[in-house]
Amino acid sequence: MRVVLAEDSVLLREGLVRLLEEADATVLAAVGDGTALVAAVEEHRPEVAVVDVRMPPSFTDEGLRAALEIRRRFPAVGILVLSQYVEESYATDLLEAGGGVGYLLKDRVSKLADLSDALGRVAAGGTVLDPEVVSALLTRRRRRDPLAELSPREREVLELMAQGRTNIAIGRLMVITQGAVEKHISSIFTKLGLPPSSDDHRRVMAVLAWLG
Question: Which residues carry this modification: 4-aspartylphosphate (predicted)?
Fold first, then answer.
């Protein structure tokens, strides 16, 4: 397995080099920032680029941006992110780049078998995600999904609205009064964050949220 590594901490970088080599990987280059990582990938064309998310100069998302540039310019190179923390938005951006990606927490890569397996799966075009990353992404999705706040009854009403049913038809199909239908719809608008507006048709906006 031919690998290039980007990690700004010298001590951690040297430790990762040894760990990668013990996992039967050949480290072609070990660099300290995203720019150098892209250059190393261009020079060596490894099977996998191993990268930290936060690197100089701003220690925010340099590693991720370098990884995305590598994916754009060298799509055959797998990307394995090793991070100290679960960066939800960064993990999402990485996954949207396609297969051949992995996101593991640094304190979970001490087992050589696990690291070797992750490298092999990423190089083969697979996806490797730390369980904590999966949990964080699912939680984030639930937080961002307003439909998750709807009760089963409200979801049923919204589904019928999406079918183009009138309030009267919804009441007949659900065997409830029109007043109850209107109460459910009002609650739906509130939970979906759709206040009264002269510019938007709340019923249409709610249906679009359902279809999305």
Answer: 52
The residue whose two tokens read 């020079």 is 43
Q: Which 3 state secondary structure label does DSSP give 49?
A: strand
**DSSP letter at 100?**
S
User: Among all chains, which residue has been given the structure tokens 């190179």?
Assistant: 77
Model pLDDT, residue 40 = 97
Alpha-carbon distance of 136 to 130, in angstroms, equals: 10
- Report d(CA 171, CA 167) in Å as an integer: 6
Residue 96's contacts (CB-CB under 8 Å, 6 or more residues apart) are none
What is the C-alpha separation between 147 and 125, in angstroms, rounded? 33
Specify which residues 26 forms β-bridges with: 2
Query: 3-state class of 80 per DSSP?
Result: strand
pLDDT of residue 89: 66
pTM value is 0.64
pLDDT tens for each residue of 69-100: 998 999 999 999 888 877 666 667 777 777 78
